[in-house]
Amino acid sequence: MKRLFDIVFGGLLFIIALPIMLVFSIILFFEFKTFPIFTQERGLTLEKYRFKILKLRTIKPSDFEIAHTTEEDIFLKPQLKEQTSSFAKWLRKSALDELPQLLNVIKGEMSIIGPRPLMLKDLRTMKKFSPELYNKRGMLQYKPGISGLWQLFGNRDEGSIGLLALDSLYEKTASFIFDLKLMLYTSSIVIAAKNSDSIFYTPRASSPRVHTFVDSTSKLKVTLNMPAGIAKFILEKVEKHEGKYTVEVPADWWYVSDTYKSFSNRKKQSKIYSITDGKATPEENKNVS
Predict the structure, then answer these.
(1) Containing H/E element for 220?
(2) Best mean pLDDT range from 94-103, 156-165, 256-265
(3) Which domain, by its residues, includes 109?
């Protein structure tokens, strides 16, 4: 079903996007004076789902290299701001530089929705500084995606731990309907040009900071810093799987007596649900810092 989803929607979107990519390519050619589409080898890990990703060029060709000192560095690259242009910035913030990857989807190398493929040098950094998380990522089964839970809702400040948590959560909840929901939400990010970008990243000021981790017992804990409909869908799906999970959801994004809970002072709180043996029970409320 997932492959059919990718073929149908990937093919349709590629046809629609083709003239748009042509216009973007002409603009980028005159800006950077070089071929506007390039390939870059990426993968889920160094050993799994490696392929050459297609992208519109948004960075000037140069020998500039970023030295990684921690694994968090791979998700934040503000040093490259001077290597871009105003148009390239808009392309990255709207995620439209990813349009050529629809061809990767049609070829079966990646999916529309799935874990984010990383550059090989970033994967080497993750393997060096966070080998346990790197190995856990290698256990994921879904192909890398153009969009996904982490691409839409991830906190780049968290580094690999947040990436793995959301990728693992997607693996537990993936379905045709969920992919469709995430695809529709992606369209709103594109229209508003609010994509989370490694070069032009700004933390979300209007929402509580996300705290995400996967502990040594593989217990998954993730704050669902996302719209109520998607958070509710995830919780309902998680209930159907074996294992114990703790999912934190901001209280004003959850349901109480079939209605949205409203607050006069809109305090930032989280309602914590422990999900064990298919049952979700509230444990406590706590403030989110």
Answers:
(1) strand 220-223
(2) 94-103
(3) 2-201
